[in-house]
Amino acid sequence: MRLDQRLIAQMIEPGTRVLDVGSGDGALIDHLFRLRGCDARGIEIDMREVTRSVAHGLPVVHGDADHDLAHYPNDAFDYVVLQRTLQAVERPREVLRQMLRIGRHAIVSFPNFGHWQLRLKLLLSGRMPMTAVWHTPWYETPNIHPCTIRDFIALCAEEGYCVQQWMAVDEEGERAPWRRSIRMANLFGEQALFLLRREGECPPPSEES
Amino acid sequence: MNSTAPLDVGDHQHATFPDGLDLECGVHLPSLDVAYRTYGQLSPKRDNAIVICHAFTGDQYVAETHPQTGKPGWWARMVGPGRPIDTNRFFIICMNVLGGCMGSTGPRSLKPACAEGKVERWGTDFPPITIRDMVRAQYKLVRSLGIERLFAVVGGSMGGMQVLEWAVTYPHMMLAAMPIATAPFHSAQNIAFNEVGRQAIFADPDWYGGRYWEHNVVPARGLAVARMMAHITYLSEEALTRKFGRRVRQEPKDAQAPEASLAMFGDVFEVESYLRYQGSAFVRRFDANSYLTITRAMDWFDLAAEHDGELPAAFAGTPVRFCVVSFSSDWLFPTSSSRYLVRALNQAAANVSFVEIETDKGHDAFLLDEPDFDRTVRGFLCGVADHAGLA
Question: What's this model's pTM, rounded to 2 decimal places?
Answer without folding.
Answer: 0.92
